[in-house]
User: Fold these one by one.
Assistant:
Number 1:
Amino acid sequence: MKKSIIAGNWKMNKTLPQAEDFFNQINRKIKNAPLRQSSCILCVPSPYLPSASQHKLKSNLLIGGQDVSAHTDGAYTGETSAQMLQSCSVDYCIVGHSERREYHHESNALLNKKLFQLQECDITPIYCIGENLEQREKGLMEKVLLTQLAEGLKGFDISRGTIIAYEPIWAIGTGKAATAQMAQDVHQLIRRWISENYSPAIAEQTHILYGGSMKPANIAELIAQPDIDGGLIGGAALEVESYWEMVKIAEEK
Ligand code: PEP
């Protein structure tokens, strides 16, 4: 059975001392209770990546960025390249979070370029897809998700390791998570799409995470679903205790 992935997305939160305090505490917890069934990934703000990388050497904590440039290098003020992430020993990077799709108008075509940048630098992408409430209510959910998959992953080899995160936009930061059955139905659809467009073996090995108001109170039911391989978690991953509670639940799965 695949290990569950418990990925925290800190978004634009915490100061450096607060981040380091979190890394120290989580490292102590992993040292006292080594992970067997799950992997911990922390997707932190870019300025904290070097510190996070130093801390990851002390335990098997994995580190992720939250975004990457579609360009390799050059005059792109404010951007972070895949090579920069690689030089900070980053293992994973979120691509296409709904906040970037919405506030920064990131298209599937642009996200496709970002995925290739990451693969070139051996960083595993966490590719986010999700529908908004209006799309779900109008019956457009499946079309939206399959378009995000087809256009975002166009020509991209996911067999080298790509994580898909299904994050219904109406569930992100709202406290209103999808029910386990709703999430399972979508995850099954995604896995079927991967099976048809890549291969059944690749579909089986690919981690598909759920994101959207996941927390200690609902994670067990969500990750008990056959096609939910873990979570991408915002709010509930900001405090060490609640993050660790979710890791422990995944360890007991
Ligand atoms: C996210 O930002 O990826 C997310 C899922 O946030 P939250 O857990 O707070 O809904």
Note: The mean pLDDT is 97.
Number 2:
Amino acid sequence: MVGHAKNSNKPDKSRIDAAIKLATEAHEGQFRKSGDPYITHPLAVMEIVKSWGMDEDTIIAAVLHDVVEDTSVTLKDIKEQFGEQVAFLVNGVTKLGNARSGMRDLDTYLPSTKDNLLRLLVATGSDIRVLIIKLADRLHNLRTLSALPPDKQKKIAKESLEIFAPLADRLNMGRLRVEMADIAFSYVDPKRYKELADLIEQYNKSAEKTMQKIQKEVSSALGREKIKFSINGRVKSVYSLHKKLAKHNGNMGEIHDLTALRIIVNDITDCYLVLGIIHSLYTPMTGRIKDYIAMPKQNGYQSLHTTVITKDKRIVEFQIRTHKMHDFAEHGLAASFYYNEQKLTENYKTGKIEHLPTNLLWITELQETAAKLRSGKKVDLKKLRLNLFADKIFVYTPKGDIIDLPTGSLPLDFAYRLHSEIGEHVIGVKINGKMRSLNTHLRHGDVVEILTSKNATPKAGWFDKIITPHARHKLRAQLAAIANHNNNLQK
Ligand code: MN
């Protein structure tokens, strides 16, 4: 787990103690709405970033994050006592405190991006640690939200759902995202929250026996193969159920991952082995196998997912991953501090992090972009969005080959990508086993089967059903060839 004690760069306790002393004295006589001494808040924020495995400067900045805003301690004091790095971080968090006006200023830099992470990075000096402290700050404020008056509760909860939980998701901090979103949602829509929480509880109760049985079956099968593993249930969060239901018009029949089992193993080979064993025990659902190991999600998330139907007709999702992937799924960017420690922090000031795992390299790009923008350099945001947010989807052929396409692609884009001759003879498409129209937008993880007929010919109307330049180009050439051929026949 991230944040356990065996850290080779053990934080310097005397520096942290000095920060605690300074903050305690500075906040002396201040109280929170709950009646607790104010210092309880920065200390709690410190514990949170510590538990995420963050570096020493971040821990110290967490302790001091409110002193410049709320007490007579100045940035200069902090710089003198704790160094430039800590001062820089505290300054960033303070600026973020004034996020509203800050965000408005950003419109001059960033007229065309709605990306909150980039905006925040530009606002705070392009150091992602500032955002990590801010996330910890927000988490503690949410945990203690009950002390505030209702109108403030709603405002903070709403903002958390709109900005901070998605931010945690962008940084692949899964555990944080879930906790923030669920607390916030319980204030934004308490009735719905209760409904769904009850529903999840009921469902889990009803599924308990089956799940135990499945867990046993899987465990003994894995044991026979001598695989070292741990297995446990993961409960779906209320907010993610709410969002998923909204996507499926409230249809519970579409929700297949209310109960999921998570299997954690030592290495990637074992992940695929386990997947195979599960598929030999139960029937996998078509189109529901997702290989986020070969193709991590944009936020760096890695895991194998599969949804199966058991002998007694229950639908169960399995998530299979290594210990390291699990740490990253729970703690995301923060986990990289644990794995890379010093190397990371040294490079932070310049915005260059060279030791991030490849699946998080987009953060480096983003920080560099933010730094450029701040120093007044021109950046082509359109190009950036294309690269960074890699507006891509990955879909499968029926044989399981992976094809990547731009978001918004349609079946003909897929067909022409496979082969121009396949494109030429399309008569229809099956997506996840069902006939669909050629206007259907493909989605990440779809299994796409193109139906062809030798006698079918391309149509000019297809230009409306294509978004990729490649397909457009091929179609144009084919239509020209046909026209040419017809001309020759008439001559
Ligand atoms: Mn605070």
Note: The chain has three domains: 13-188, 191-331, 392-490.
